[in-house]
Design a protein that fits this description.
This protein is of the alpha/beta class. Helices cover 25% and strands 27% of the residues. Strands 1, 2, 5, 6, 7, 8 and 19 form a seven-stranded mixed β-sheet that branches.
Length: 315
């Protein structure tokens, strides 16, 4: 085995949770090393205006906000690196983490801030037009389609929330539901069905998003009637859920049936002592930048206490 780098506190992931953990850990002199992962800055780098984060009265662009977070963590002394954790061995102390399938790091404590990724339908046209009218965040991008016709696919509470949000901005919202019923709570369904400019299509599957350089229509198939319909829209929003980026910890950390890491309520502690989780990888309820940042702070404080107790025991 090649020489192994030893670090006190290792943070995996670089959204609001990871960077906030790095800021707090650096100030506590834990000398944190943070690996940014596949998408430095996380989901906020694919959003545009962030208007709901406190302290930015005029709003801020998501990517710029993540650069600010990163620079603040660096200024506090965090060692921020490009690279991705590819394996974790939690059966040994210190923990061993493989980076980019080539180097190993030993860490006394581990903060998991790997976030979540939006689920997509898997259409070629959806990927091709992503960012050109196709979006997984209505709250982020709805504003750009004011007064226009848009479509949204999904049947849960999030899809209903996003459809209602779009209904306040757009002339018509075409909502595509794959089955004959929604999964959303009764209250949310009632709100959607009582909104005059939301048109719900039951038993409908999106076959294709159409348009050369930007979305101009979608083709849908009704499972009952076998009828194909083309609906002219300027945007296509996908709201079919998120997948937590937790594969790395399968068989190591406790997770729910969707793969979200389970933490002890009111803390960032996982079932493995010395591994802490924060941000969207353990939060399927709120999924906001501000709540992720708050949980990153909790993870750093929990880590500081854990490492302090370890050192105390060693003396």
């Amino acid at each position: 085995m090649a020489d192994v780098e030893k670090v006190h506190c290792l943070i995996i992931g670089s959204g609001p949770a990871g960077y906030t953990a790095a800021i707090y850990a650096a100030r506590a002199n834990l000398k944190p090393v943070l690996y940014q992962g596949l998408q430095p800055g996380g989901q906020l780098t694919i959003t545009t205006d962030v208007e709901n984060y406190p302290g930015y009265p005029n709003g801020i662009m998501g990517p710029q906000m993540m650069i600010d977070f990163e620079q603040q963590a660096q200024r506090m002394g965090a060692d921020i690196r490009w690279g991705m954790a590819t394996k974790v061995d939690a059966s040994v102390r210190p923990f061993r983490v493989e980076i980019d399938e080539e180097k190993w790091i030993e860490a006394d404590a581990l903060i998991v801030a790997t976030g979540a990724s939006a689920k997509w339908l898997g259409l070629e046209s959806e990927q091709r037009l992503n960012g050109h009218g196709v979006s997984a965040c209505a709250v982020c991008d709805g504003f750009f389609f004011k007064g226009q016709e848009v479509a949204i696919v999904g049947a849960g509470d999030t899809a209903c929330e996003e459809a209602l949000y779009l209904s306040k901005l757009c002339s018509t919202v075409h909502m595509l539901v794959r089955r004959g019923e929604m999964r959303a709570s009764k209250v949310m369904q009632a709100r959607v069905l009582n909104t005059p400019n939301i048109k719900v299509y039951w038993n409908s599957e999106t076959k294709e998003v159409m348009g050369e350089h930007k979305v101009d229509s979608i083709k849908i198939l009704n499972h009952e009637t076998k009828e194909e319909t083309v609906i002219p829209v300027k945007a296509f929003f996908v709201a079919i859920g998120h997948t937590p980026n937790s594969n790395l910890f399968k068989g190591i950390l406790d997770m729910d049936d969707q793969g979200y890491l389970i933490t002890v309520p009111g803390t960032s502690k996982t079932n493995v002592e010395g591994i802490f989780a924060c941000g969207d990888v353990q939060d399927k309820n709120y999924r906001q930048a501000v709540t992720a940042a708050g949980s990153g702070c909790m993870a750093a404080l929990d880590t500081e206490r854990y490492l302090g107790a370890l050192e105390h025991a060693a003396h």
